[in-house]
Structure formats: C-alpha cells, structure tokens
C-alpha cells in the first residue's frame, strides 16, 4: 500500500512537472503568417527572419508559424482571412488594394513609381496614401506594419532591345493583369497573356519572343537558358507590405505590439536587401551565362504610356488626379 501511494505521488509529481514545463515554454500567442511565396523565395526568407525576431524579442511569448506556397489560398483570400481574424499576417503589394479601391492601381502604373523610397513616401506621406491606408484599416480589417522592396520588372527577349523601336511587334508574354498588358501594348509590343507554367516552353520554341518579370524570377525559372537578351526596362516596381489583422493587433498588449512592429521594420530592411543584392548579382550571373544586357533610354517608354495614364484618370476622377499631383511632388 505504501508502495502504491509512493508510486501515485511520484506519478502526480511527474504530471505536475510536465505541465509546468509545458506552460513555462508555451507561447502566449500562436500566430499564423500566410503567403504566396515558396520556401526558396526571398519573401519566405524574410518572413522567417520576422518570425525569429518576434520570438526572440518577445522572450517566446509570440510564436509565428509560416504557411508558404499559397497553402491558405491566394493573396486576395488571405487578405479576407485577415479581415475575418482567421489569419494573423500576410503580404500584399500596394497596387493589390485596387481590388477594393481602383485608385490604388497607380502604384502599378508603368514608370510612375521609380524606386522603393518613392513608393514608401507615396504610401506613407501623401494624403492619397494615408487615406488609402485608413480605408484598408477601417474597411478591410488590416493594419500596415512595414514596407519592403520586392523587385522591379525587366524584359528578356530573343533579340536585343536597344530602344523602344525594338519593342515593335515583339510577342511579349505578360500576366493577365491590366498594367502589364498596358505596358506591352503602349510600347508597341504584342501582349500575349499566358499561364506562368507555360512560359519556358513558349520562349524555347519562339511561340513568344519575350517575357517580363523581376530578375530573381528570370533567374529562378532559368529563362536565361532560352533567352539571350535582357533589357533593363524598369517598367513596374513591386513593393511588399507586411500586414497584420486588426483583431490580432488589438489583442496584443502595447509592449508586444511594439515587438511586432519593430520586427516587421527589421524584416522589411532584410527583405529589401535580399532583393537589392540579388538583382546586382543576377545581372552579373546572366552575363556569365552569355546573356547580353542592354539599357535602353526609358524616357520614350514612359512617354508612350501617357494614354494609359489618361485612362486611369478618367476612371478615377478627382481622387486619381489628386494622386498624380501628389506623386509628382515627391522628391
């Protein structure tokens, strides 16, 4: 009997110790970060940095689990999940907000946003950008944490592009997105929408003459194997926003809000560095693979897009004109 009591006491003590150990190391907040990017992409690497930073700086109170490769749906679906409180973090581009507010398309208009510093000022410092973020917060249930650079779109082809004249008649694969289609159309190319999975073979067989994507994508997809010319056309800059659900944000105490915000700012810097460094390395890599890199004068490219800017202004009226006016003042 004494043995049984001793055994029971030992067992109970073990359970208590186990429960204490679990509670001592369990996070107070288990949060989810969904994204389209796969595990080999810069976005995922930056999200890993963010998750580690949050865990370390919160002393383990916050754990962030990553869900890459569109496991939770596309970006539109994940933004809806943030609004509903079903997901805690996701990425989105500023221009992607045009699915809610058409005027946000300005961030993707070719040649309107020349660099990431301009993009940040346009979003964070202008009345247009502040109002857009207010609506995203109040109506879509999302709070902006930080802004990162996510690459600039360039043009690879099966013939050299030394000037806008060389774009004439070029069968250019573009995604089925209005701004990309407009770029191809107004610079004189023949826009050819096509599923991304089909692009390599289409380039290889000359079903299309070229395509446009950020440099890391061109490298990752090995388009340099079937395209020996690359033009630095710098036509659309991609930013990447770190977004948090309002429900999640409001649930965090002030000290942990600061941890998350600071971690997002640090992750955005790391994110941007990955892309900036990668682009410099990519150009050298392409040249080593025998790709000829050209730098056409971009002033005629931008001038050719004016009719599309006029379309934007017609669609968006005063709010669109105000955005253009404010963007033109950014230094």
TrEMBL record:
GO terms for cellular component: outer membrane-bounded periplasmic space. InterPro entries: DctP_fam, TRAP_DctP, TRAP_DctP_sf. It is found in: Cell envelope. One of its GO terms (biological process) is transmembrane transport. Pfam families: DctP. N-acetyl-beta-neuraminate binds at residues 93, 153, 173, 213. Keywords: Receptor, Signal, Transport. Residues 1-26 form the signal peptide. It comes from the Bacteria. Belongs to the bacterial solute-binding protein 7 family. PANTHER family: PTHR33376, SIALIC ACID-BINDING PERIPLASMIC PROTEIN SIAP. This is Tripartite ATP-independent transporter DctP family solute receptor. It comes from Lonepinella koalarum.
